[in-house]
């Protein structure tokens, strides 16, 4: 292993550290991986790694943010889609597609980052999750304003439910891959399930309106 050479750029060395950490955390586990092993895999000096990241928790936050970054950029750029519900469905598709493109980052985001540690869940320190949730909160609010959803179900509850739906389907897909079973749902099937959920909200709203009218 070579130490960090003067010709190596600061950003390149940092990027190599994040890539090595992502792979080792995902394949070996966070607790079983040391910063020295990450430095060796990234071909940088241990001193350089510790200069960039104060420890494994901060390094994991960096990996999580790097995993969220391309996803949030894609879902934030959907303003050209005029129909709010189409925009929301497309954002969920892009979220799932981003996880499938980089399953190591996705598993860390959904599993390792949420593991409770002495200082609380590491994912709480990641700005990537907050940015993603903020975008979906905005899209859900636009859907309610345009179509009307049941008043007894809050926007936060709706956002939480649809994200949990996509997360669960992704994690099941990864589990099935690992044990050699066929994928539980195709991308097309997942899209249909999301549409069913959103249409169900609309139907629930329509039924509530009809019931109110009958009692008047």
Describe this structure in words.
This protein has 216 residues and is mainly alpha-helical. The chain has two domains: 1-53, Arc Repressor Mutant, subunit A; 57-215, Orthogonal Bundle (Tetracycline Repressor, domain 2). 72% of the residues lie in helices and 0% in strands. It is elongated and about 60 Å long. Mean pLDDT is 83; it is low at 1-7 and 208-216.
Could you list some keywords that capture this structure?
single chain, 216 residues, mainly alpha, Arc Repressor Mutant, subunit A, Tetracycline Repressor, domain 2, 72% helix, 0% strand, elongated
Radius of gyration, whole Å: 21 Å
Order of helices and strands: HHHHHHHHH
CATH architecture of the largest domain, by name, is Orthogonal Bundle
Terminal CA distance: 79 Å
Shape: elongated
Beta content:
under 5%
Number of domains: 2
| Uncertain stretches | 1-7, 208-216
List the helices and strands and how they pair.
Blueprint: H1 10-28, H2 35-42, H3 46-52, H4 56-76, H5 84-101, H6 103-110, H7 127-147, H8 155-179, H9 187-215
Helix pairs in contact: 1-2, 1-4, 1-6, 2-3, 4-5, 4-6, 4-7, 5-6, 5-7, 5-8, 5-9, 7-8
Describe, in short, the structure shown.
By secondary structure, this protein is mainly alpha-helical. It has helices spanning 10-28, 35-42, 46-52, 56-76, 84-101, 103-110, 127-147, 155-179, 187-215. It is built from 9 helices and no strands.
């Amino acid at each position: 292993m070579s130490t960090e050479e003067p010709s190596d750029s600061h950003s390149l060395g940092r990027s190599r550290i994040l890539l090595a950490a992502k792979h080792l955390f995902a394949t070996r586990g966070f607790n079983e991986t040391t910063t020295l092993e990450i430095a060796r895999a990234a071909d940088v000096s241990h001193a350089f790694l510790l200069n960039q990241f104060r420890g494994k928790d901060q390094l994991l936050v960096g990996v999580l943010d790097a995993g969220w970054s391309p996803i949030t950029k894609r879902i934030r750029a959907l303003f050209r889609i005029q129909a709010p519900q189409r925009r929301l469905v497309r954002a969920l598709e892009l979220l799932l597609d981003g996880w499938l493109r980089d399953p190591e980052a996705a598993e860390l985001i959904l599993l390792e980052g949420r593991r409770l540690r002495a200082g609380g869940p590491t994912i709480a320190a990641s700005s990537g999750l907050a940015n993603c949730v903020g975008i979906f909160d905005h899209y859900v609010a636009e859907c309610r304003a345009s179509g009307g959803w049941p008043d007894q179900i809050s926007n936060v509850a709706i956002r939480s439910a649809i994200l949990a739906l996509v997360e669960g389907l992704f994690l099941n897909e990864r589990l099935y891959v690992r044990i050699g079973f066929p994928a539980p749902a195709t991308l097309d099937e997942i899209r249909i399930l999301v549409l069913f959920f959103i249409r169900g909200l609309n139907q629930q709203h329509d039924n509530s309106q009809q019931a109110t009218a009958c009692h008047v």
